[in-house]
Amino acid sequence: MKNHRIALVPGDGIGTEVLPAARRVLDRVAPRHGIGLAYDSFDWSCERYLAEGAMMPADGLDTLRAYDAILLGAVGYPGVPDHVSLWGLLIPIRRTFQQYVNLRPIRVFDGVPSPLRDAAAGAVDFAIVRENVEGEYSEIGGRLNRGLPEEMAVQEAVFTRKGVDRVVDYAFGLAASRRGVLTSATKSNGIVHTMPFWDERVAELAARHPGVRWDQEHIDALAAKLVLAPDRFDVVVASNLFGDILSDLAAALAGSIGIAPAANLNPEGAFPSMFEPVHGSAPDIAGRGIANPLGAIWSAAMMLEHLGHAEAADRITGAIAAVLAETRVRTPDLGGTATTDEFTEALLAFL
Ligand code: NAI
Ligand code: MG
User: Fold this and answer.
1) How close is the Cα of 1 to the center of ligand 2, in Å?
2) Same domain, 54 and 111
């Protein structure tokens, strides 16, 4: 038996509906693969912020440090500004635990039509590797002359050799374990300092991965190509901002944001990694029990893979593919009438 301690942070809205579904799937799969999972659940959320003035306790990060992984639902609540929920919980977790890879796999499944006419099931299967702790989302900058005609704002993008190298190296390694093709997102024609540096690092690191074919595309052209020919891609590596934008585009192209998973990885395992669906708390449908749990369930599979249980993870992604291909059971976002529970039941039947 291999034992792991998992911190559950359901968060707000549908986060509290999809995380129990993911846990049911984990509890079905784990024992059969000799995996013991012990959970503790934390109510850190916007509701906690409204009641107690903080998204998490002051020692929240110290508490999380003791866990092997964090499984998060979603945070966000009408009435609490989104930067509060983001900078009060998710970003401190990502940065303190050096989760410098944000990994987002994208697949068009048989049984889920893509909004793109030519995106065939099975053919579209790629991953976006987003740099997750530096780049354009830095805290360096400021504002001057607030409210005056001379008002100005400056925000610095920070690209370090260590920060770029480790995420690009991870992406090359991932590509080597897949179809062996890497695309680097750049904009070195318009952004004349950081992006040429990014390109140089990619070219130098490529030499360490002779088995991977690679090229680079300017981010604007790449966005167009992801729509026109998504089946051409295997692994796309991008800076924090570019990766953020591309990964929502890519999630949409797979048919529903409710399916897309994400992993915030500290690949060395020095700190816990965090797994979360790409979607937010969906206040428009929260409380009705109709959220699509697939993003959370697939994220849980990525967690098992990260913890060294690739076979158990494959069993879950196999069941996801099977329930979509072989049944018509769907939550409303995919055109069906099933509740979160009914859909989860249907998926459990394939495990
Ligand atoms: P959202 O992802 O919550 O919702 C966008 C649309 O997709 C909504 O119509 C929603 O009903 C639908 N949707 C999302 N997930 C679904 C699921 N699993 N099943 C069925 N339908 C689903 O994004 P939105 O509306 O921009 O943000 C709502 C709140 O969530 C905000 O407070 C935002 O800051 C927060 N948020 C949090 C994230 C996180 O915790 N990582 C990520 C994105 C947004
Ligand atoms: Mg985003």
Assistant:
1) 37
2) yes
Cβ 321 under 6 angstroms from ligand 1: no
Residues 250-309 have pLDDT tens digits of: 988 988 889 999 999 999 999 999 999 999 999 999 999 999 999 999 999 999 999 999
pLDDT tens sequence across 120-158 = 888 899 999 999 999 999 889 999 999 999 999 999 999
Total domain count, the chain: 2
- Geometric angle at alpha carbon 310, from 250 and 94, rounded to 5°: 55
For residue 321, give its domain range.
1-115+255-351
| Residue 264: Cβ-neighbour burial (10 angstroms; 0-12, 13-18, 19+) | buried
Whether the full predicted model's pTM is greater than 0.90, yes or no, is: yes
Looking at 225, 253, 281, which one is the last position of a domain?
Answer: 253
Alpha carbon of 195 to ligand 2 centroid (Å) = 21
Do 174 and 263 reside in the same domain of the chain?
no
Instruction: Answer whether residue 337 is part of any domain.
Output: yes
Residue 349 Cα to ligand 2 middle (Å): 33
Q: Are 124 and 110 in contact (CB under 8 A)?
A: no
Measured from the CB, is residue 174 less than 6 Å from ligand 1?
no
